[in-house]
Specification:
CATH architecture: Up-down Bundle
Low-confidence stretches: 1-6
Protein name: MFS transporter
Pfam families: MFS_1 (PF07690)
Keywords: Cell membrane, Membrane, Transmembrane, Transmembrane helix, Transport
CATH topology: Growth Hormone, Chain: A
Structural class: mainly alpha
Largest sheet: none
Organism: Paraburkholderia pallida
Distance between the termini: 36 Å
Strand content: under 5%
Number of helices: 19
Shape: globular
Mean pLDDT: 78
GO molecular function: transmembrane transporter activity
Radius of gyration: 21 Å
């Protein structure tokens, strides 16, 4: 049973179930990190590896998602990805140690790498430029319920039952998404138009994975000080080799020529930095509230809930802002306001009222949503149909890498500061410096967004004029 021809709304809603599952998984796991650490008998800071392993797997497998979708059929790959993600979630719920948890998180990441980018490919391929913003909204609005429900649901499940239920919850969602996708998504054809760039895929995967291992080795604080430097240097060399190879290959694993498109370049690079800071914040807030302020898991989750509410409420208003102001002004305003929120987060203390913290995180959610809605709308606006598959893979890879980079960089910052203090566990001051690091990352986006012309991105909202 297929949706009516060109009715992108039905496809967007079906694909949003998969995005919802991935989003709710991310927010629930972050809330449960301190509880998982206590159960496994390790430092909460070291459990950044659980998040990073998942994001690295997403990053490594995303570059080939477009080729796999073209070769075997986008709908078929999308269905298999949902099955993989769901079964891996069950594996995470059954683990007895950290190595097992990391292994199943990697498998989860492999499923997610094919699930969301391929879903976006199914949606965006074949729709008109003027429908890009509407399609992005129909896709992301239901999916935003994941981050909204994730914090309170994660806090409730962890407090009343066990952190393991934060993974079991994916099973009914995965089954629902699988059934809806099978029945309602349009059939897609296999189009093996080009060979897989195996060399490029291996170089990109190795470069990204080793770079993240380098950052992760810093925040563990258990290796010789020289080792992280050596690993990060190796990662940098591999990144250069991967870039050099992909620029010279006719059909590369990652098509860097897409960066010649101004709107896509800004959405990928500056938008990626914003995503890094956003995920870093989501990692730091539960640490600050549960570890430094001694909030209960449920209380912490209700505070984090504020950011999700802000994101959900702001999303429909993005079109209102874009009708009245240039894209570059909207994006720069979102970055500056988010930097202010992060700066205030660094100043938080136990003496702050819970209402004040709630409102601060609410405003952070507003800024994040304004940026995400705008960059999501302009990213593919000027990408030609022939490069849409490569663009979705590129965008997915850059986003997941920057998510991992954001968590790894602030975890490393907090770990280094804690080690310099001579303490094995972070305190409020250490975590506050992690927030300062996120401010720096966000401010890097402002000059990049300002490079856009007044006309860039205007096509995505022309139907509203």
């Amino acid at each position: 049973m297929n949706p009516p021809e060109n009715d992108f709304r039905i496809s967007a809603l079906v694909i949003s179930v998969a995005l919802f599952m991935q989003n709710i998984d991310g927010t629930i796991v972050t809330i449960a990190i301190p509880s998982i650490a206590r159960d496994l008998g390790i430092s909460a800071l070291h459990l950044s590896s659980v998040i990073i392993a998942y994001l690295v797997a997403l990053t490594v497998f995303t570059p080939i998602s477009g080729w796999v979708a073209d070769r075997f059929g986008a709908k078929r790959v999308f269905l298999l990805a949902i099955i993989t993600f769901t079964l891996a979630s069950a594996g995470c719920a059954l683990i007895r140690g950290l190595p097992e948890l990391i292994s199943f998180r990697i498998l989860q990441g492999a499923g997610g790498a094919m699930m969301v980018p391929v879903g976006r490919l199914i949606l965006f391929r074949g729709i008109d430029r003027e429908d890009m913003l509407a399609a992005s909204t129909w896709l992301t609005m239901p999916a935003l319920l994941g981050p909204i429900l994730g914090p309170p649901l994660g806090g409730f499940l962890t407090s009343e039952w066990s952190w393991r239920w934060t993974f079991w919850i994916n099973l009914p969602i995965g089954i629902l998404g699988l059934v809806c996708a099978w029945r309602f998504l349009p059939e897609t054809q296999c189009t093996p138009s080009k060979r897989l760039d195996l060399t490029g895929s291996v170089l990109v995967a190795a470069a990204l994975a080793i770079s993240m291992i380098g950052f992760d080795s810093v925040d563990r604080g258990a290796t010789h000080p020289v080792m992280p430097i050596l690993v990060l240097s190796l990662g940098a060399v591999l990144c250069w080799l991967a870039w050099r190879h992909c620029r010279r290959t006719p059909h590369p694993a990652v098509d860097f020529s897409l960066l010649d498109i101004p709107t896509f370049k800004v959405a990928s690079i500056a938008g990626g930095c914003f995503i890094a800071a956003s995920d870093a914040m989501l990692f730091l807030v539960p640490l600050m509230l549960q570890v430094a302020f001694r909030y209960s898991v449920l209380s912490s989750s209700m505070m984090t809930f504020a950011s999700s509410i802000g994101s959900f409420c702001m999303r429909p208003m993005a079109a209102f802002a874009l009708r009245r102001y240039p894209v570059r002004s909207v994006l720069t305003t979102a970055s500056c306001s988010f930097a202010v929120v992060l700066s205030l987060c660094a100043l938080m203390s136990k003496d702050w009222s819970r209402v004040g913290i709630f409102f601060l995180l609410l405003m952070g959610g507003v800024s994040r949503s304004l940026n995400f809605a705008t960059t999501g709308a302009i990213a593919f606006a000027d990408v030609p149909e022939s490069k849409m598959s490569a663009a979705t893979s590129f965008q997915g890879t850059s986003q997941k890498f920057m998510k991992a980079f954001g968590v790894a960089s602030v975890a490393a910052t907090v770990q280094i500061v804690s080690m310099l203090r001579g303490s094995p566990h972070p305190d409020q001051r250490d975590i506050a410096l992690g927030f300062v690091a996120t401010v720096v990352i966000v401010m890097l986006t402002c000059p990049m967004f300002a490079q856009l012309s007044r006309e860039d991105g205007s096509g995505v909202t022309s139907q509203m004029e």
